[in-house]
Design brief:
Hypothetical Protein Ta1238, Chain: A; elongated; two-stranded antiparallel sheet; 57% helix; 182 residues
Length: 182
């Protein structure tokens, strides 16, 4: 099977359901950014430092494919596409609670970085926030399952906690932001 179809050569693509829209359509921006987020999550999975969480990271990737599929679906219920559930969000919260045990209290904002895996966590977190904004922009025009927004919001929190956990477990330096005095 050839991967190229040539049907997008004029700047349009098809939604799940067949409607052709511009590749700059708000829906395409939303699920395209979720796809980018999924790629960054995959990069995190590839770091040896995240091996303890590999199964959970794969679950997150599955949920991101679910989100992308739902964002690409023009008529909800028309196709058998999986949905998000409240349990998906509580799973993220439980994972965060586990990781947070033993971490020092936050007293400052932290500067992203300190080790490549920590930097990748922060980059992934910012892509997640952008995906959330794109989905919210889409929701201004098109009905979006509220669980999608909640999931992305919680996932960005999880990525921040994961960055801190990796920093402390790896013995890397967490740099507090010290604002320059005016």
């Amino acid at each position: 099977m050839k991967i190229y179809t040539k049907t997008g050569d004029k700047g349009e693509t098809s939604l799940v359901g067949g409607t052709r829209v511009s590749k700059t359509h708000v829906r395409i921006e939303a699920y395209g950014t979720v796809d980018e987020l999924n790629a960054w999550i995959g990069r995190l999975r590839d770091h040896g430092e995240t091996s303890l969480w590999k199964d959970r990271i794969i679950t997150v990737q599955d949920r991101l494919f679910t989100i992308g599929s739902n964002l690409a679906l023009e008529t909800p219920g028309k196709f058998n596409i999986p949905l998000l559930h409240e349990d998906d969000i509580t799973d993220l919260e439980s994972w965060m609670d586990e990781m947070d045990v033993g971490l020092p209290a936050m007293r400052n904002f932290v500067l992203p970085g300190g080790h490549p895996v920590v930097s990748d966590c922060h980059i992934t977190r910012t892509v997640c926030r952008r995906a959330e904004r794109q989905v919210l922009r889409m929701a201004e025009e098109i009905d979006v399952d509220a669980l999608i927004v909640t999931y992305l919001n919680r996932l960005s929190d999880l990525l921040f906690v994961l960055a801190r956990k990796l920093t402390f477990d790896g013995g890397f330096e967490e740099m507090p932001w010290q604002p320059k005095k005016a």
